[in-house]
């Protein structure tokens, strides 16, 4: 004991009192202050005025005797430890006094200094421990929390009033019963799990779970579990402190839902919430802070208005200051003690980029009408501003585009009265159309058609597209044809309130289509005429081929098949001409270079030489156009000469090259200035066609003027038909050169 111990002795025998004092002087190893009284009343009076640490009392005093002496002292000073001094004959009274609250008793004549010192120290410490235990018991009993002790095998051993209030069971109903009576069916294994955790030395604080009340209601609790050890340090039980958090959980859930809704609203709408305390010059932020400003929430925590104002665009600062700061700070008197404002301005983000801000706020005022807080919502409207600007520009371009165009736009209400007209058709004025119906403007037959279309759209709610004719006299420009799209016009909630139409004048287009149709019909007639003529040529070729076999009684099948294949190729050469002609824009002229490319590809395929190594080389000048009278015989010439090379120039699987060259030579009598396009280039032009191969060549025995082969005969005939020149060079392989002139195409 570190402090001085104040000791009071009740003793009417001076000898016994002196003996006690001598023992203390000799054996006390602590500081003390010792006082003696001889009567009960004297001691009780002293106890009222002084704070003492321990009482030593003889039970036989002049004004009190026996157990009553202790009871009187203890009743008035229950917090001070009392040691009873008895004679040998009064030892039973000492034991009784200990039972009633005394800390110890000593028998006079048997006590020594060491025993006295130990008894004093023990009594003081024991009294303190009892007080701590009692205080703890009082706390446990008065606590609103459930404080329960259960054994390691799961039986309830203690139960306070808080447990009775939370779980609904009085102590007598649950003491000695298994703790599982409090566990919902879904958590039956929880007690064993928690017990094992405590046994392994784990600490369990604020463990949230569910428990079952006596009335069957499941409640939410927060529990703290602690081990209880016996005097030897062995785990003997578990103390459980539980608090009913059912209402707080509900409130927490409501708060969570509210905060979640708030978070979702602010995040989904991209809003930033703020509260400006003008008295403290602090702004508190919430919502999409970093997304809008570029600053983290920590960087703006408790910032003043200066940061915000300094980041407002210089051109907008005055407006923002006057309306948001200065305006809110004025004495504004109204019944609600508040003033609303709405601003749009530019704000500089942390990265230096300016964005457009929409700021809605309210100024809250005190009773003296001075604003003390500003609450507001900010939103980044940069994209909206860009969209508005783009829309403005688009509308401007729309107006410019429609100005002077053939497009008419208008709307009509449910009664089909014109409510808006843009870019009216020639002969109409906006002021003469608005408020009127089609029957007031057009001829009866036109008005009936227009009205029927629009009523059908109003009834069905589905748009449609039509070609409509406006009948007008020739003096007014004649009839007009419009491509008209009609759509239902709806209000903001989707209710049909009329129709909106876009009509394009396609009168000239329809006239052009009619003209082109006539041209196409003429073109088809011309092609059919050409086909008829060429079929006659084919028939003549077949007659020539047949004459070759007319005098033979025995036919060589291979020669017959070869002859038919040659005839087939001649037909194909003319068919390709018609294919090119039909696909071109000209009635009777085709691109001969394109034709030769397709013809040679077809011949290679027909004679199956594509994989043999024989090479076809075309050197053809671009944009050479021939009419049918030139193209057909020239195409057949190429067919005959290329076929001849593919059949005879490379016997025994030899490889080589077949080459076609076609170029143009301009007649000297025409100057270059007269040639302005491909058609003009055909005036007075001569062409050189060279078909050659590097094969075995043509024997000297074969003469161009007197050949008995049908192919050479056809080439000679066709060159004469074109009034051309034919030359054969046998130096290296075979090289046929044909020169033709093409007359001016008038």
From TrEMBL:
The modification 4-aspartylphosphate is found at residue 58. Residues 526-744 form the Histidine kinase domain. Residues 205-257, 341-393, 464-518 form the PAC domain. SMART domains: HATPase_c (SM00387), PAC (SM00086), PAS (SM00091), REC (SM00448). Residues 6-123 form the Response regulatory domain. Residues 132-201, 258-320 form the PAS domain. InterPro entries: CheY-like_superfamily, HATPase_C_sf, HATPase_dom, His_kinase_dom, PAC, PAS, PAS-assoc_C, PAS-like_dom_sf. GO terms for biological process: phosphorelay signal transduction system. Keywords: Phosphoprotein. NCBIfam families: sensory_box. This is Sensory transduction histidine kinase. It comes from Methanosarcina spelaei. The lineage of its organism: Archaea, Methanobacteriati, Methanobacteriota, Stenosarchaea group, Methanomicrobia.
């Amino acid at each position: 004991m570190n402090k001085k111990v104040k000791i009071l002795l009740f003793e009417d025998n001076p000898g016994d009192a002196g003996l006690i004092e001598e023992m203390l002087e000799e054996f006390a190893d602590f500081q003390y202050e010792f006082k003696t009284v001889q009567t009960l009343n004297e001691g009780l009076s002293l106890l009222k005025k002084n704070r003492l640490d321990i009482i030593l009392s003889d039970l036989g005093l002049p004004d009190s005797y026996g157990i009553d002496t202790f009871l009187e002292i203890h009743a008035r000073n229950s917090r001070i430890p009392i040691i009873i001094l008895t004679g040998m004959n009064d030892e039973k009274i000492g034991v009784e006094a200990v039972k009633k609250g005394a800390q110890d008793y000593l028998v006079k004549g048997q006590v020594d200094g060491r025993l006295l010192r130990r008894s004093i120290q023990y009594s003081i410490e024991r009294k303190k421990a009892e007080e701590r235990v009692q205080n703890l018991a009082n706390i446990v009993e008065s606590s609103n929390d459930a404080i329960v002790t259960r054994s390691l095998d799961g039986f309830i051993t203690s139960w306070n009033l808080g447990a009775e209030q939370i779980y609904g069971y009085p102590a007598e109903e649950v003491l000695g019963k298994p703790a599982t009576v409090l566990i919902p069916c879904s958590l039956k294994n929880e007690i064993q799990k928690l017990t094992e955790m405590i046994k392994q030395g784990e600490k369990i604080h604020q463990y949230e779970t569910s428990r079952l009340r006596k009335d069957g209601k499941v409640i939410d609790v927060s529990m703290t579990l602690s081990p209880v050890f016996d005097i030897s340090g062995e785990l003997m039980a578990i103390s459980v402190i539980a608090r009913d958090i059912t209402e707080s959980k509900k409130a927490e859930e409501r708060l969570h839902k509210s905060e979640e809704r708030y978070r979702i609203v602010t995040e989904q709408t991209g809003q930033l919430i703020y509260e400006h305390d003008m008295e403290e010059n602090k702004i508190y932020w919430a919502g999409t802070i970093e997304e809008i400003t570029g600053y983290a929430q920590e960087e703006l925590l408790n910032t003043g208005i200066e940061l915000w104002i300094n980041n407002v665009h210089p051109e907008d600062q005055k407006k923002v200051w006057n309306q948001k700061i200065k305006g809110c700070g004025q004495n504004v008197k109204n019944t609600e003690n508040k003033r609303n404002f709405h601003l749009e301005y530019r704000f500089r983000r942390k990265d230096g980029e300016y964005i457009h801000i929409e700021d809605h706020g309210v100024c809250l005022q005190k009773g003296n009408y001075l604003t003390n807080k500003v609450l507001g919502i900010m939103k980044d409207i940069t994209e909206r501003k860009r969209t508005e600007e783009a829309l403005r520009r688009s509308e401007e371009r729309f107006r410019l585009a429609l100005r002077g165009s053939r497009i008419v736009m208008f709307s009509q209400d449910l009664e089909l009265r014109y409510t808006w007209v843009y870019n009216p058709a020639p002969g109409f004025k906006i002021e003469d159309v608005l408020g009127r119906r089609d029957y007031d403007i057009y001829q009866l037959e036109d008005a009936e058609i227009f009205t029927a279309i629009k009523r059908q759209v109003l009834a069905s709610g589905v748009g449609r597209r039509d070609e409509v004719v406006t009948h007008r006299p020739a003096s007014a420009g004649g009839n007009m044809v419009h491509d008209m799209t009609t759509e239902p016009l709806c209000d903001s909630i989707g209710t049909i309130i009329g129709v909106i139409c876009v009509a394009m004048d396609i009168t000239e287009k329809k006239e052009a289509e009619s003209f082109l149709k006539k041209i196409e019909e003429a073109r088809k007639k011309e092609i059919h005429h050409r086909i008829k003529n060429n079929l006659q040529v084919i028939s003549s070729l077949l007659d020539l081929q047949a004459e070759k076999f007319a005098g033979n009684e025995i036919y060589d099948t291979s020669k017959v098949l070869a002859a038919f294949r040659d005839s087939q190729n001649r037909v194909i050469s003319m068919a390709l001409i018609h294919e090119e002609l039909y696909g071109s824009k000209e009635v009777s002229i085709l691109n001969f270079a394109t034709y030769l490319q397709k013809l040679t590809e077809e011949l290679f395929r027909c004679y199956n030489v594509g994989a043999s190594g024989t090479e076809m080389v075309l050197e053809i000048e671009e944009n050479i156009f021939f009419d049918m009278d030139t193209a057909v015989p020239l195409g057949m010439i190429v067919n005959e000469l290329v076929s001849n090379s593919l059949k005879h120039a490379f016997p025994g699987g030899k490889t080589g090259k077949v080459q076609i060259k076609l170029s143009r030579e301009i007649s000297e009598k025409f100057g270059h200035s007269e040639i302005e396009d491909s058609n003009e280039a055909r005036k007075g032009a001569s062409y050189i066609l060279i078909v050659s191969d590097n094969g075995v060549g043509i024997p000297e025995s074969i003469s161009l003027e007197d050949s008995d082969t049908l192919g050479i005969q056809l080439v000679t005939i066709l060159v004469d038909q074109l009034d051309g020149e034919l030359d054969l060079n046998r130096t290296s392989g075979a090289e046929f050169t044909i020169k033709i002139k093409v007359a001016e195409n008038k």
